[in-house]
Predict the structure of Citrate synthase.
Amino acid sequence: SGLITIDPGFKNTGSTKSAITFLDGEKGILRYRGYNIEDLAENSNFLEVSYLLINGELPTTDQYNDFSDRITKHTLVHEDIKKILDGFPSVAHPMGVLSSLICSLTAFYPNSLDPNNTDEEIQLSMVRLLAKMPTFAAWAYKNKMGHPVNYPDNSLDYCGNFMKMMFSLPSEKYEIDPVISKALDKLLILHADHEQNCSTSTVRIVGSSQASIYASISAGINALWGPLHGGANQSVIEMLEAIKADGGDSKKYLEKAKDKNDPFRLMGFGHRVYKNFDPRAKIIKKAADDVLEKLGINDPVLDIAKELESAALSDQYFVDRKLYPNVDFYSGIIYRALGIPTDMFTVMFALGRLPGWIAQWKEMRENNEPIGRPRQVYVGETERDFVAIDKR
Ligand code: CMC
């Protein structure tokens, strides 16, 4: 084992070669398949970006229409899924519900368990995932509220359908505000992939054992849930609200974050790879301003966020450690403005990250990557004799 180097958190270990996402943490650059995130957020839409991530190229009009039609046609889920949903108490966190429902697809489509699935069958699984995840996400929310679920409306686009399932009653006519639809679409694009992060590595490693794509994506959702990863967007708003309730003194919390005897961290700050501004945070900060202005919302939490950001950026502790706001710092403010409840924020992240997980799973499979199996350096007891229970 002298040959084994341990690298806790894989801070300096590459697990794969990948042609999907390019990230330069020093310069703050993020590109999907060579296209800058700024260009995609401004000019593309979420389904087009999903196609790009999964297939490697932007679609032609025909390819786009075909892809989006297929997704629209698979939004409905098996009626028995409602029974699974009914089994969850209303206090269930929607992330746990979402990962369970995604994993239940292994039961409804058992041929996904066959590692020798044809490319066509795999394409279908990918379409199903993209189509059904918004239905599951909205249903997780409805379950929590104790409301009847809404069926998908295939006359609407991806975001419109999701918002309708979330926010209308089954009998109601629902019209999505284009400002909301555009803002949501942009957020999904910004979250769509981020190379070998914790959840994506989880998807690839579970997939490397030839588990079903549904099981692999379900595992990714669980990895995303934690507050150091996607769960940070929920923690950021909870932190900002706590600061507000405590009199709005952001400096006090900055000091807490710097205190090594205090477990408190400034949520939404810092990143394993970005040692410069997270380019997604820049776009989201501007989008938050735009959305609040267009919807005529004045959110005091946004002011606290800005105050905290500027205080941290000029503080030596944060400067020395190159800690900048990350994607999660401002996204929650937009979700709030759109009426999305706090414990659904990480679900929104999962909806956005889904095409990235799919693309990474597909790449892992096409590369014929070996099973993921890190090594260790054993530091426990050396050999010893068994002692009978009455002699211990
Ligand atoms: N507040 C205060 N100090 C921090 C923070 C923070 N948010 N982040 C890092 N540090 C300090 C840390 O204490 C350490 O200090 P020292 O060198 O004195 O021991 C130094 O900065 C390096 O931090 P690290 O924990 O070794 O860095 P990491 O790469 O292991 O962790 C991170 C990255 C994102 C988990 C961490 O920055 C963090 O916990 N941030 C808050 C949670 C968060 O916003 N997560 C979302 C990440 S972006 C989106 C996503 O992945 O989903």
